[in-house]
Amino acid sequence: MAVNKGRVFLVGAGPGDPKLISVRGMEAIQRADVIVYDRLANPRLLKHRKPEAELIFVGKLPDKHILKQEEINQLLVDLALQGKVVTRLKGGDPSVFGRVGEEAELLADHGITYDIIPGITSSIAVPTYAGIPVTHRDFTSSVAIVTGHEYPNKTYSSLNWEHLAKAIGTMVFLMGVANLEQICRELIRCGKPPEMPVALVRWGTWADQATITGTLADITEKVKAADFKSPAVIIVGEVVKLRDKLSWIEKKPLFGKRVLVTRARSQASELVDLIDDLGGEPVEFPVIRLQPPSRPEAQEALDRALDNLQEYDWIILTSVNGVDFFFRRLRERKIDVRRMGKAHIAAVGPKTAEALAERGIIANVLPAKFQGEGILDAIQGDLNAGQKVLLPTADLARDYLPARLKELGLEVTEVDVYENVLSMDDGEEIIHLLQNQSIHILTFTSSSTVTNLLEALKQLGIEDPQSLLQGVEIACIGPKTAETVAQAGLPITYMAEEATVASLVQSMIQGGGNPT
Ligand code: SAH
């Protein structure tokens, strides 16, 4: 390998669902100094890049070429010659109508090292996601992947319809929507029965996946009537019939829903995984970042409380984040947890209790619902006037709990263990999705996710965020959050019964489908 030359990874990004990339493909994204990507590679894969990595979009929109293929080939060479690690991310598999040959050839001419990392091609995966396996013992023993693009000009004959029609069981056409009529006509002319089943699947494996089925004789009309657009794969063959029985992702309760997750990235994974598991497409837009208190007074107050940890009779933790930052700071200050030895420890909600349990502390659990009288019932019997309570919370914590404790005659020390700050990374992509009405549900898991989302949109140049959000369904985790949503003048569609992520997701699917 030449010393001062960069290298290029030519990577198949898979058909859309960002989890359908290979492990090597993902590593190439993580290693890249520059990522050159196009339209069919899901931009959500890009969030795995190094923070300083440069992004270059060379996507071809059907009627608008941003960069010609030759220019892309040259671009890869130029970047590599600057000594960069370049990842060229392409939809599906790079070798299947992906022009990887041309890109690799020019790299080879310049002696640049490259890897070609295969991807899951849409020609096979997209039918699969529509419940159509491209082969099946009972129906077909061969499959051909055919371009539907070159017809009717130069390679009309190179496709050799007659051979195709006679020899091949299943045919998958890529880039063929515009030429559907001719494709069907040619296949019938060459002996395929007009009643041969045909399916078109557009945006397969994305939230926008849609399928239309018919026969060689009537599919063209159906596609026109439905205004069914590319990108789509066309599947011709008996296997299409299997879809009635085998369609699977469409049966999931959140299928087709793109759901915006606004909570901090560090806390988002449970919600993201649930949405994904239920067939929805989670899109992360963390509008909150958590960090240690930035005001010196707050930090000092926290440190003072921690230094005197042994004095408290009660320590009440109100959130998983509170637990995380509390223990993080103890560790930073080298304070041994045994200093809490005499304190009763209580946790608001089961998740907080679980976070404590992970650190070896079994706490009294207070109900997660903040409203109502119930909050202190679980420990009321053990509370005595004059006892000292430490309440490590966030800068935005509500004052209900401390107020009640003070009423009961306890001496309450409230300290901020972390603070919420506004974050808006990758906001342009989100605005783009919202403008295209491609986000179907917004999830709000705290009041600050609501205020921060609106603020982030404003700071990104949207004058009237409320109108941008019109028509998007809104799911709220609890009454406080709902109040903030209502104050912002937005309608609430779904409301969690309990203040948990699982209940939030449950509220979104009620009335449709089965949680798995
Ligand atoms: N290398 C790619 C194909 C590139 S050609 C691969 O292996 O998948 C581009 C064509 O692929 C589109 O016109 C469309 O026919 C098909 N295609 C790619 N992704 C698709 C998707 N998610 N859903 C439906 N068709 C898709």
TrEMBL record:
Entry EC number(s): 2.1.1.107
Task: Tell me the SUPFAM superfamilies matching this sequence.
Answer: HemD-like, Tetrapyrrole methylase
Q: In what residue span(s) does the Tetrapyrrole biosynthesis uroporphyrinogen III synthase domain sit? A: 270-506
- Which UniProt key words apply to this protein? Methyltransferase, Porphyrin biosynthesis, S-adenosyl-L-methionine, Transferase
Q: Where is the Tetrapyrrole methylase domain?
A: 8-219
A Pfam family name for this chain? HEM4
Q: What is this protein called?
A: Uroporphyrinogen-III C-methyltransferase
Which species is listed as the source? Answer: Paenibacillus roseopurpureus
